[in-house]
Amino acid sequence: MTADRTPAVHTVLGPVPPERLGTTNSHDHLFLRSALLPGQELDDPAAAEDELRAFAALGGGAVVQWTPYGLGRRLDDLVELAETTGLHLVAATGLHQAAHYDDPDALRRLDLAALFTAELRDRAGLIKVAGGYHGLDAHARWTMTAAAEAHHATGAPIGVHHELGTGAQDVLELLCDRLGVPPHRVVLGHLNRFPDLGLHRELAASGAYLAFDGPSRANHATDHRLLECLHALADAGHAHRLLLGGDTTTAAARGNPGMPYLLHRLRPRLGPELAALVLTDNPAAAFAW
């Protein structure tokens, strides 16, 4: 980020002052196509609009969509949905794990840092990368190195998929210790799938943002200890590092419970002060650059 530019959240319709973002779903997918999820594509603009309108009806103001390059983001549809619903939509560049792509070998021919940087200067507002289970493979290290370069060129935040919530320490060692990304520019995703409260406190103390983003994932321990983890981190003084999202990834999961669940069911159980931080103040800080 250049010194003469005021930080903004970069939506598909352009930069927005952070204070205008409003109540935010910090990690979800309106469109997604993965080789690992055949027949479960999220590719219906009308269904996406219904989901967004239901979220907006409960006071939702913004959705951060973590679908990266090559997995059916449908950027033109995101632009149209932002225009028709009035919601702020943030799109991602970046890459997921190689297994999610039909032709992962073709990815190796890309200049990733240049690609990510170009997309951030167009319509993307986030770099999405992914680790593996309890560690980082060569693909993860390659994509994270490119993500760090794109971050240094733009200031954009980096959102990280952690397989079953694991490997966050490895990610911080690579991105922050070795590649110089400030911890507060990193969003560690899926930590609710690995409810180690001691580890969560350690990660929050690093300065990174912790995303608890799985209410719609029926096949993982998502809701089971989610609120316990959030309240424990808040009690330990880390409320300003917490984010909440839905992470709907399949057509079967859309609407079950879907985006409205964040505001209809989870928000009241956070309490007004913590809810304001997790859903409004923290996303405004985490995604502005």
Automatic annotation (TrEMBL):
InterPro entries attached here?
Answer: Metal_Hydrolase (IPR032466), Phosphotriesterase (IPR001559)
In this chain, the stretch annotated as Disordered covers: 1-20
UniProt keyword annotations, A-Z: Hydrolase, Metal-binding
Please report which protein family the annotation says this sequence is part of: Belongs to the metallo-dependent hydrolases superfamily. Phosphotriesterase family.
Under PANTHER family, the record lists: PHOSPHOTRIESTERASE-RELATED (PTHR10819), PHOSPHOTRIESTERASE-RELATED PROTEIN (PTHR10819:SF3)
- The chain residues annotated with the modification N6-carboxylysine are K128
In its UniProt entry, what is this protein called?
Phosphotriesterase
